[in-house]
Design goal:
44% of the residues lie in helices and 22% in strands. The protein has 469 residues and is of the alpha+beta class. It comes from Marinobacter lipolyticus SM19.
């Protein structure tokens, strides 16, 4: 901005205030228009952001309902949790009742050596110790660096072969204990040696740790056992107390000898809860859309997105989904959302959910209910279609992103216009200063000439008076 500190000094007519008033009057209309346009553009960007967030929130519960697993909720109960617990994979489980009679629990084998005087001084022999667990054999070298109970235990643990080893102080000596890390007969431990003393089976040197079915120089303190139980009268054997694969989608956790009845039942509350989440998020989206595109009767004004084609497109697509009949359900007692207790309030566009109706229909027609929501046999259900619709709108190249990108370009254009306005106003201000300065100088000169003439006339006045006398 040009300096105008001396403006008006000559004439007293032109001043800094006058220049500022003219400059502001020139700037104000354009600046006001740009401010209004920027404010509206930023409000639209914010509105699209809120709609995007609401669509993302809606997509989450719909993704759950778009899979068969999301529509299949089961609970498992055991009449005697002390004997057996139960867990369910809802994606593949089915209703059923199972009588369990647990006859034997699975156990992990433990072997104990003879008694030694100490844990880390007395040598135990040298050679190669071979551990065979589950059909996998591992050789462990025992030499002068590890030929004590403690040294052997450390080498076995470092080998990571499914056997843990420790040295136990019995009070009257020390024993090496090897324990299988997994239960069951198949995970029993076999120990063989190549003893450097030349005898691989006697009770001296490294061979005192042999336990291979032929020589048993270690004591089996805990026998390897499989879990044995009857399920509906059929005997089942497993290496673990976690019994899987007997009933599809059902896992028994056996804990003690005894009987229990396990029931697997549909859990309509869980599925209804997922649908309720969808309804809540759908209605929240309607609130957001109403806020930014609806008409406020009190103020007589519409929202910043009133009449927006993108918003209308979102509403149109989602409402179309609400009355869609998936292929294959044309003649089913369940064809659309209204048949399962989900209806639209025409005055608000929001959904109303009758959970009692939903749970009744889920229990009566579980397969049709799944087909209504989830993708099944290559046919998209309503939830899957809504996921796709929401994903299309909020994609990086979707309608919302395109509108937001366009608005951001508008903001850039507004800033360009502001920059040009600043340049124009600066030029205008400089022109005013030049014109006012020139005018000020001219007026000052005129005033100066006038003062001179007045002085000359005043000087002539006495002479005229004398001549007249």
């Amino acid at each position: 901005m040009a300096s105008i500190t001396s403006l008006g000094a000559g004439s007293g007519i032109f001043s800094n205030d006058l220049v500022n008033q003219l400059v502001n009057a020139e700037r104000a209309p354009t600046e006001q228009r740009l401010n209004q346009k920027q404010s509206l553009t930023e409000a639209k960007i914010s509105a699209y952001g809120n709609i995007r967030s609401a669509l993302e929130a809606l997509r989450t519960p719909m993704e759950k309902l778009s899979t068969i697993e999301g529509m299949r909720a089961f609970t498992g109960t055991s009449s005697n949790e002390a004997v057996a617990g139960v867990s369910i994979d809802p994606s593949i489980a089915n209703r059923g009742s199972y009588s369990l009679d647990v006859k034997q629990l699975a156990q992990a084998q433990s072997l104990a050596s003879g008694v030694f005087a100490d844990r880390d001084t007395t040598t135990v022999g040298t050679g190669t110790l071979t551990l065979n667990v589950g059909g996998v054999a591992t050789d462990i070298t025992v030499d002068g660096t590890n030929n004590t109970l403690e040294g052997m235990a450390a080498s076995i643990n470092e080998a990571n072969v499914g056997v843990s080893a420790s040295v136990v102080d019995t009070g009257s000596g020390f024993r090496l204990v090897m324990s299988a890390e997994d239960t069951g007969v198949d995970n029993a431990i076999q120990v063989s040696v190549a003893d450097n003393d030349g005898n691989n089976t006697d009770g001296a040197g490294l061979s005192q740790f042999v336990f291979d079915g032929t020589a048993s120089n270690m004591e089996e303190t805990v026998q390897a056992k499989d879990a044995i139980l009857d399920v509906n009268g059929i005997e089942i054997t497993r290496s673990s107390n976690t019994v899987e694969g007997v009933i599809e989608g059902v896992t028994f956790d056996v804990k003690s000898i005894g009987t229990s009845t396990v029931k697997v039942e549909q859990d309509p509350e869980a599925v209804a809860g997922r649908v309720q989440e969808f309804v809540d998020k759908f209605n929240a989206l309607q609130d957001v859309i109403q806020k930014f595109s609806g008409f406020n009767e009190a103020s007589g004004q519409g929202g910043v997105l009133s009449g927006d084609s993108t918003v209308r497109g979102i509403q149109s697509e989602l409402r179309r989904m609400l009355t869609t009949i998936p292929q294959g359900l044309e003649d089913s007692p369940i064809r659309m959302l209204a048949d399962v207790g989900i209806k639209t309030d025409p005055s608000t566009g929001k959904l109303e959910f009758d959970q009692d109706v939903f749970k009744e229909q889920l229990e009566a027609y579980p397969e049709a209910m799944t087909a209504l929501f989830a993708e099944k046999d290559g046919v998209e259900g309503i939830a899957e279609r809504m996921v796709n619709v929401a994903s299309d709108f909020i994609a990086s190249d979707g309608a919302l992103a395109n509108r937001t990108d366009g608005l951001n370009r508008t903001l850039e254009s507004i800033q360009d216009q502001r920059d040009r306005l600043d340049l124009r106003i600066a030029s205008y201000e400089e022109r005013l200063i030049r014109q006012f300065s020139a005018a000020d100088s001219l007026i000052a000169q005129i005033q100066s000439n006038g003062n001179f003439v007045a002085q000359q006339l005043a000087a002539l006045a006495p002479q005229n008076n004398q001549n007249q006398g």
